[in-house]
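hiii so um. not sure if this is the right channel but i have a protein structure encoded as tokens and i wanna go backwards to a sequence. like what aa goes where. can anyone help
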């Protein structure tokens, strides 16, 4: 580590992952610069507004410096990276919704793909030795996981072939499947991050996330499955299930466990790596199972309606095969269990619901 406080640049610093990263690294002695243009409010309206998070981060961490920069602003990105020359870049700014992208194709691509290129090029020019961690997504695999043989159990789908028992590995093809425009813009960025690693020998890494969550998630219907589901229960709202009998499976990981892995990569970086990062099989649940878990915690029945049509390209069963990650970073582990994640998110929504002015 450098003698001065190591400098972290995190994009999307007011989002779920970004804000978790700010706290995690600030508490470990990093000087943290955050970039966030509050585009979440542009994508999702007032419910997605993250300006409160910015105020909280400024108040909580004296080392935090906020830049209301739009990563589509090439000159602005170059100037900031030139000035900071960060020791670590964590890129978590994005248009994050699979479903939203089709309505805003240019904005989605400009933020997710072009914005990533701006950051990579700035890193290559001003800090090529610094690890560059990109928050990618399992949607880069498109609907390829749906082509695996599945079996239907009473409350969930699961992989039928024992060869798939550990979940989806990084060897899954990202080619010739339906991704959604979001999956395509994220896959474009994922390839660019890999390319800057391979071509320029930069220590880049793509983390292909499953469902990343935590109490700070501003879940909305189109993004943030578990957070939104629990919010619906706490507020007595109706939750819409889209297809697959509500048995579709997701693996869930707490933002803090994501940040912990990023620190491991910073300590022992590799070139052009790709990892699937989720809660794995143990932290996987279906929508129906999530209903039961939150009902147990709150004592409130879940209100829901069923929509026959599944979301386009939605995974029927997905959990991350964590074996490669564990082999490369054996000291890292998923510390927050599924139950713990449910408890934290439920408590956060209950506190918000009880807050004056709600
Ligand atoms: N949350 C998940 O379940 C999940 C799953 C897989 C991958 N990911 C990926 O992880 C990353 C972070 O996701 P998240 O859940 O924290 O999303 P988020 O929406 O909570 O955070 C993203 C942040 O980026 C900011 N942002 C968007 N466009 C910007 C721009 N042009 N310039 C500057 N800031 C901008 C937003 O205002 C927001 O605060 C994304 O790349 C997402 O695709 C998330």
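sure thing!! here u go:
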């Amino acid at each position: 580590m450098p003698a001065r406080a190591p400098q972290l640049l995190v994009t999307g610093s007011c989002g779920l992952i970004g804000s978790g990263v700010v706290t995690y690294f600030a508490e470990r002695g990093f000087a943290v610069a955050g970039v966030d243009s509050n585009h979440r409010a542009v994508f999702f309206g007032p419910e997605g507004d993250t300006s409160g998070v910015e105020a909280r981060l400024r108040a909580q961490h004296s080392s935090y410096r906020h830049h209301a920069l739009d990563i589509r602003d090439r000159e602005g990105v170059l100037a900031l990276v030139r000035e900071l020359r960060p020791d670590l870049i964590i890129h978590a700014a994005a248009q994050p919704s699979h479903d939203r992208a089709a309505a805003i194709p240019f904005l989605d691509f400009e933020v997710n793909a072009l914005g990533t290129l701006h950051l990579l090029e700035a890193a290559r020019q001003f800090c090529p030795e610094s690890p560059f961690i990109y928050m990618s997504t399992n949607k880069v695999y498109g609907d390829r996981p749906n082509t695996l043989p599945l079996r239907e159990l009473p409350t969930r789908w699961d992989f039928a072939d024992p060869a798939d028992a550990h979940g989806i590995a990084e060897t899954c093809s990202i080619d010739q499947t339906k991704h959604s425009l979001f999956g395509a813009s994220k896959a474009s960025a994922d390839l660019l991050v890999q390319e800057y690693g391979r071509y320029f020998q930069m220590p880049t890494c793509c983390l292909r996330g499953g469902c990343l969550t935590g109490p700070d998630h501003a879940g909305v219907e189109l993004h943030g499955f578990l957070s939104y589901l629990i919010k619906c229960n706490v507020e007595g709202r109706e939750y819409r299930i889209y297809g697959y009998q509500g048995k579709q499976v997701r693996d869930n990981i707490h933002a803090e466990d994501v940040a912990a892995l990023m620190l491991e990569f910073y300590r022992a970086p590799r070139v052009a790596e790709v990892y699937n990062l989720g809660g794995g099989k143990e932290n996987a649940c279906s929508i129906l199972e999530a209903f039961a878990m939150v009902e147990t915690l709150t004592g409130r029945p879940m209100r829901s309606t069923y929509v026959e049509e599944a979301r386009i390209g939605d995974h029927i069963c997905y959990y991350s095969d964590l074996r490669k990650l564990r082999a490369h970073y054996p000291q890292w582990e998923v510390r927050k269990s599924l139950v713990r994640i449910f408890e934290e998110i439920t408590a956060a929504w209950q506190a918000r619901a009880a807050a004056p002015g709600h």
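oh and The longest strand covers residues 132-137.
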